[in-house]
Amino acid sequence: MTRLLLRLPPALATLLIGLAIALSLTLAVLLLRPVIGPLVAAAILYVFLAPAVEALQRRGVGHTLAVTVVLGGTLLSILWAAINLAPPLGEQLSGFLHRLPSTWNRLEGLIDDLVARAQYHLGVDLPVAEFMNRLRHWLERRATDWLSQGSEWIAQTILWALLLPLTAFFLLRDFRRLRNALLDRVPNAAFEDVLRIYHGVGSRLQSYLRGVLIQSSVIALIVTSGLTLVGLPLAPLLGVIAGLLNLIPYLGPLLAALPPLLVGLSTGLETPHLGLVALVLITAQVVDNLVVVPLVLARAANLHPLAALLGVILAGQAFGVWGMILALPALASARICLEGIHEGLSRRRTQVTPPHADIRATHPNRPLNP
Predict the structure, then answer these.
(1) DSSP states along 237-303
(2) What are phi and psi of 170, to 5 degrees?
(3) Is it the case that residue 366 has pLDDT exceeding 70?
(4) Cα–chain-centroid distance for residue 203?
(5) Domain assignment of residue 283, yes or no
(6) What is the C-alpha to C-alpha distance for residues 305 and 289, in angstroms, rounded to an integer?
(7) Residue 185 phi/psi, 5° resolution?
(8) Distance between CA 248 and CA 316 in Å, rounded?
(9) CA nearest 284: which of 257, 251, 249, 255?
(10) Among the four 67, 103, 150, 207, which has the fewest Cβ within 10 Å?
């Protein structure tokens, strides 16, 4: 197989290898789709907790004990925060759900007022009433579906609770050993190229992951602080939701704007205060797009905007929300892999095929330039 690939032009051989890798990864993602969330979360924990494990090991702590202490402390901290925050958040969410019917009526009133103003000042009749009716029926159906999937939500929670800590533990304990075992099986001729690709992908993914964490934290901090100053209930929760939804490229900021506006409508905020809520959300996105993305994420992803947009759309169609979240790091990694494979194939083809070999074959008596 290797000799056959070396006979092909490097670009064509790289394309064939890339297609084979893409097909294999697609099949793997489809097979692992029910557990992709816990696996990704465990990988994120590994990236951020591995330095702490190494620090304990340098102080003389055993490897397994260091992993247990760091991971156990992290999970206990998350559990403690969830237990202490759940009661007040649950009470506020219950009040929000109780006010949903009046919130919807107020939203329809505001939209009717905007439609009337547009018709009066611009002479434009917007068919919003039919759209709102369809949206309300769709939301009712979705709410019924979500309530009927209670057992599925419980099963997913149990799956996360079991799979996340176990996967994170074994990654922290055994990842390097497994990685070294796999690298030992790489042929010597390709070892340097594989190692270069591995380090390139690893550093790119770590940079992107840290950049995304910074981005989400900045969004969550700005939204939480701004909504607290406005006096909106559930400000910390809404800030965290905005930070998490911002992980979804392009669509996330729009989705993140809905919960604060709905909460503002449900609590009876007047139009000026709703404008302040919208201003907080716009400010967060301005800071994100003018400061965080250029300084943090642009270098990490290193992708053409059109390629990134198409990748997010196609991955979202194929794999849903997780596909949209993982599209950019997957594309960045694929670019590094293909560039490394092409470089390695080009170099090996030059080494295998001596210069002017084709000239000797076709013109054996022709003198060669020195």
Answers:
(1) HHHHHHHHHTTSTTTHHHHHHHHHHHHHHHTT--HHHHHHHHHHHHHHHHHIIIIIIIIIIHHHH--
(2) -70, -30
(3) no
(4) 17
(5) yes
(6) 14
(7) -85, -5
(8) 10
(9) 257
(10) 150
Please name the amino acid found at residue 167: T
Cβ distance 197 to 189 under 8 Å?
Answer: no
Q: Among 23, 24, 4, 26, which residue's Cα sits nearest to residue 13?
A: 4
Q: How many domains does the chain have?
A: 1
User: Residue 230 has which token pair?
Assistant: 């406005």
The number of beta carbons lying within 10 Å of the beta carbon of residue 221 is: 14
Q: pLDDT tens, 164-186?
A: 999 999 999 999 999 999 888 88
- Res. 101: pLDDT tops 50: yes
Task: State the Cα angle at 143 between 90 and 127, rounded to 5°.
Answer: 120
Q: Is residue 267 part of a domain?
A: yes
Token pair 């494990």 in the structure block, residue: 53
d(CA 111, CA 132): 9
Within-domain flag for 73:
no
* Count of residues in the chain: 370
Q: Which domain holds residue 292?
A: 190-347
Q: Each residue of 229-265: pLDDT tens digit?
A: 988 888 888 998 899 888 887 788 888 888 888 888 8
pTM score over 0.85 = no
Q: Which DSSP string do the residues of 285-334 spell out, in sequence order?
A: HHHIIIIIIIIIIHHHH---HHHHHHHHHHHHHHHHHHHHHHHHHHHHHH
- Let me know if residue 364 belongs to a domain: no
Residue 362 confidence class, pLDDT cut points 50, 70, 90? very low
CB 29 within 8 Å of CB 322:
no
